[in-house]
């Protein structure tokens, strides 16, 4: 039941994403016009300390008008190593520079609409370097016990699927 993308035409582009219109052939031979969003990779990072607390950002997302806990994240610049981008984003958004990063998982948050891949990393230590350069991106940054993560996700306090998946995976790795 494979769908085949026969061609794409650009509709709109900016430095963060492109909107294309694809001519898709369905398994029964019919054709479908399908809009899709092509995006740059996203790098995500956090740290879990010795007390099994994870560094989170409390932020508002105006598009959905929701508040929630997230990890530091941003787009990977052209030619930038993904892990380097994850470390950069974490330091810019939290004021903490991570130690060596470990790849946690890569997710496709909305693969029916976009090719976005979110590459999530974590470290088991970090160094505080001062107030975050991009402090405007979150209302606050806090160390939150990993023990609380499943209930936070269940209550909708981690609304972004990529962040929920990462936090539940960290909970599993560190607490079993």
UniProtKB/TrEMBL annotation:
<dbReference type="Pfam" id="PF00293">
    <property type="entry name" value="NUDIX"/>
</dbReference>
<dbReference type="InterPro" id="IPR015797">
    <property type="entry name" value="NUDIX_hydrolase-like_dom_sf"/>
</dbReference>
<dbReference type="InterPro" id="IPR000086">
    <property type="entry name" value="NUDIX_hydrolase_dom"/>
</dbReference>
<dbReference type="InterPro" id="IPR020084">
    <property type="entry name" value="NUDIX_hydrolase_CS"/>
</dbReference>
<keyword id="KW-0378">Hydrolase</keyword>
<dbReference type="GO" id="GO:0016787">
    <property type="term" value="F:hydrolase activity"/>
</dbReference>
<feature type="domain" description="Nudix hydrolase">
    <location>
        <begin position="38"/>
        <end position="171"/>
    </location>
</feature>
<protein>
    <submittedName>
        <fullName>NUDIX hydrolase</fullName>
    </submittedName>
</protein>
């Amino acid at each position: 039941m494979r769908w085949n993308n026969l061609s794409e035409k650009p509709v709109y582009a900016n430095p963060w994403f492109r909107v294309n219109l694809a001519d898709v052939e369905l398994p029964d031979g019919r054709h479908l016009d399908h809009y899709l969003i092509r995006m740059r990779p996203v790098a995500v990072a956090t740290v879990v300390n010795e007390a099994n607390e994870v560094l989170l950002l409390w932020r508002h997302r105006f598009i959905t008008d929701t508040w929630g806990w997230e990890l530091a994240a941003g787009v990977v610049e052209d030619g930038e190593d993904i892990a380097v981008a994850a470390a950069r984003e974490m330091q810019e958004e939290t004021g903490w520079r991570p130690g060596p990063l470990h790849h946690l998982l890569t997710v496709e948050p909305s693969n029916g609409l976009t090719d976005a891949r979110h590459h999530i990393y974590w470290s088991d230590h970090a160094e505080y370097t001062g107030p975050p350069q991009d402090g405007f991106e979150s209302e606050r940054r806090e160390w939150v016990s990993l023990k609380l993560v499943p209930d936070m996700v269940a209550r909708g306090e981690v609304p972004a699927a990529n962040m929920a998946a990462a936090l539940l995976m960290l909970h599993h790795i560190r607490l079993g």
